[in-house]
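Hi Y.,

Following your request, here is the sequence exactly as I used it, all 236 residues.
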Amino acid sequence: MKDGSRLMPLVAVLCLAGGPASASVYEVVVGDPQVYGQAENAFPFSTLPQYYGYQNTRYQQVYASSAFSRPLSIQELVFYPTSNLQAPLLPATLEIFFSVTDRGVNEISFRPFDDNLGNDTQLFATLAGGFSLDGSELAIRGSAFPYDPAQGNLLLDIRVGGAPLGYAGPFFAALAPSSLARSESMPFSRWHDFGSGYDDQGLVTGFREYVPEPGTLVLLGLGLAGMGVMWRRRSA
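Below is the corresponding structure, written out as tokens. Let me know if you'd prefer a different format.
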């Protein structure tokens, strides 16, 4: 009972530190979710026409480093559904990878996919499709990827497996050059083996980092310090 009563306050502190209310969100949205229409797109999360015949397919999108004002730890990836929302996502397995690449916007198409990857390629998340969207976002949580825009552009690599042919799902906000003023340049481009590359457009994408509040860090520090004190006492 003595040991148990000592542990209870420490456990409470650590649980508090991990709660959703203990962190603020830093978000970068590349593109504009409100600008769509002819530029909205469904691939790779939704549509796979019968006539292309790729049940296992791949999608890459490169984001200009200039779209990010500082380094961040990408913990959540977000896309913005726009139409055909009653249809579930493509019932397939999607493996999502990140890396830092030396390829620029409009430089990833018509190359072997692996040639676009950086040396630090990391699996971010594995998504099982077939579910219906709930709300205004498709938000995917994954293993944090540390991205420093000073090191190069960001590459998103999505590998689709076991997809049914002839499937049509929801569409997502996207950008093409026609969506922007002539003075603006595209912040990203894409490449895939579904039809042609459409190198000059891509899906509007959000990247989120959950930053612990200062008070949370203090509580976590106190908890770890308390753990150290208990360990020393037990060792003595």
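The longest helix spans residues 214-235.

Thanks again,
Q.
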